[in-house]
Fold this protein.
Amino acid sequence: MKKKQPYSGILKPPLSPQGLASNYFHHLPDLLDELPRNASDFTLAFYSRVSGRTQHKRRTYEGQEMQFHTAMEKQTISESRVFREVGSGWDLTVEARSQLIKAAMFVAEHEGIVVAANSQRFLRNEFYTPSEITRLPTVEEYEKLLQIIETFAPGVRLATLEAPDLCPYKVRSIEIKWGQKRTGRKGGRPRKKRSNPTKPRYEVVAPMIKKYFRLGYSCRKIAELLEPICEEYDFRPPHPSTINRWKRRDPT
């Protein structure tokens, strides 16, 4: 029986009929390995794209840039610059890709490289939706993007920090992790802080509840009498059913 190979997270051509990103984008680590060992004067432009103004306002691009700076810590770069773009990945007009064009023109004079965190930062399918992230760009879309670059900066290479053909689900997972590093959060459902701790409230109102019960007041009347006291201590007034439960727990 043939042993099943572990899933590598790389899309194979049959699963990506629209077009393979690796046919158009380089993997930056492989590209750097091809450079001469003494090459220390190459220039990089990092292309950081977010889809909308809300993401830009929340500074989500910082996760991409943190990933880039971390990857480049051990590299000797003569010059690098970050170019931020706000717009959809499927919009392939000169106006919508002004920052990508500027990035390409910046490195063109030095035979440098334009780098993005992953291939989705460069390009997305026209019909991409967050619920259908496996819908990959077509060959026509890839070629149109490269044509825009070739018009303004001939010969400039585009590269990605992650493998160009990395599965979209893996890409999303990596972006989430870098976003968590940026904000210092670990992910998962946040724990809610209890604004109404029961024990301190009980310790304050319990003597009064016992006094009111001895005077013959009902649970509803006691709840009304406790409202100003709870407001003074910034507690939520207990419900009559809660007062009744406390009475059964401590009948004295």
Q: What stands out?
A: The first helix runs from residue 28 to 34. The chain has two domains: 13-183, 198-249. Residues 198-249 form one domain.
